[in-house]
From TrEMBL:
It comes from Paenibacillus donghaensis. Residues 1-23 form the signal peptide. GO terms for molecular function: peptide transmembrane transporter activity. Residues 28-47 are annotated as: Disordered. This is ABC transporter substrate-binding protein. It comes from the Bacteria. Keywords: Signal. InterPro entries: Peptide/Ni-bd, SBP_5, SBP_5_dom.
Amino acid sequence: MKKSTFLLATLLITSSLLLSACAGNNSGSNASSTSNTGAATAPADAGTATNNAAESTIVPAGALSEPFTATDLSKLPAVAQKRTDTIIVGLTDPSGAFTPYFQQSGYDGNVSSLLYASLVTVDEKGVPVPELAESWDVSDDQLTYTFHLRKALKFSDGSPLTAEDVAFTWTIQLDKAYDGGSQLPTLNVQGGTAYKEGTAQTVAGIKVIDPQTISATLEKPNATALVTLGSNVLSKAYYGKDYTFGQLEYIKKLHEHPLGDGPYKLEKFLPGQEVRFVANENYFKGKPKTEHFIYKTTEGDVWQFVETGEVDYVSFSATEENVEKLKALGFVNIIPYTPSTYGYMQVNLKHEQLADKRVRQAIVYGLDRQSIYVDATQGAGSVANIPASPISWSYTEEGINPYQYDPEQAKKLLDEAGWTAGAGGIREKDGKPLTIHYLGSKSKNTDIFIAVAKENFEALGIDFQPEVFADFNSLVSKMESGDYDLVSFSTSMLTDPSEGLMQFFNGEITDYDNPKFYELYDQALATTDIEQRKKIYKELYQLFNDELPLIPTNYKKTVYAYNGRIQNLSVSPFIGLAGSLPNWTLK
């Protein structure tokens, strides 16, 4: 199975464009050592379609409803006070695959989000805005996208960035050997199939008009095309030097020696310790104001890193306990934040008991999600019922069943599905016990889930068998073997609602064959009319809410705490910190 674009709540893998890891290793009171500097160019609607995106990027989170300013910077630890040209942020250890479109984890994406810029990015409301491209045109039929690059663009080594580099970047994603997570191959660029099959030497729909102008023509409209095409640009001279059609393995040799065009250059990668960056003097917006940036990847107590000044920025679960403890430090600013993500349980639809939607519905009715995701987190979360974030313009609760905890309804559905009480109180059907094999990560939140689920499912007559993994790769291997019934995941940052359903198109979920779903999905992509898309997604979410081919679980509420000396820091639910980082300064 292809690498998933959605991973366990603590680890996320890259999607079509550069994505960030949203939650880190939990320590203490649900503290997270992971930053959100990625998701720089997650797909968004074309043109002005996203102007009706969420009105606010800061949503009240848990015990904090508005930003909190440090009250006493004199309490800042001496080690942090002495830093004058370096900012340090915590991050779960990346793999070292720092080439966009070929990354192994969202943490690789956090790194490359500082190394590469995009043709188009999105603002704090998810609306596309210029970056390397100063403007673009979209044809009346919504098929041809023409990008006009800024003049005198350079890669970090000083070499010129032109339309030829953009053409190369698009082309290799249409190569038959490409197996990364990019959505560009799904855009159906004219001639892309012929190129992939080897019957054409070039992609007919990609045209270099002049050094600063390039266009791509699609076979049919796609609402995500603007930002998907407008993602990171790779140097043809560097990444294409050894390119031969059908052979992309060579790029792996370049992963740890990236050549980008973003605000920073990679200085050194020390696995298990840190990733060091130095400001890029050739960055098109000007050299960043802070010379050095470090991702600290050492494992340890996140609270200790903050209290001792070893890191300047950390995210925490937005519990009242965490907020009050952070305020008491005196030297940190705090921002409440609701990311554009959702948590869910992937369902193994190959297994007979879960192929029946009544059983899936019974699982949701019979699981006390309020206790697990809201009460146990001191309000730092909420229950999810659709595959979309509450800050998405597509979000709706109209016609959506909230599946409030109702064990009696769950039992009724299991009875209707033919699962009757058997030996030891475990339900049986055709001589087989009703068993749920659950996979989860080792964390405090997983412990809470298992404790509640075990009690809830036992009351329903379900044999609940949890399996917990400390090592992520081991969990993925287990999942890919098919030996599971439910597994907990979280999405990466989502800009366009279509991204929240990519599990059904990237090889992760292959056994949901409802034609209506695919029809609605295609309809929602075929128009950039935001009101029309809202209507389509409402119908699609109602369908999902009834059939539950995956089980939405929760939304997270977070707070970011950062060194009060840092100026010009802002956080976007769509691009994290990447947009503001080049302007950070230490006063």
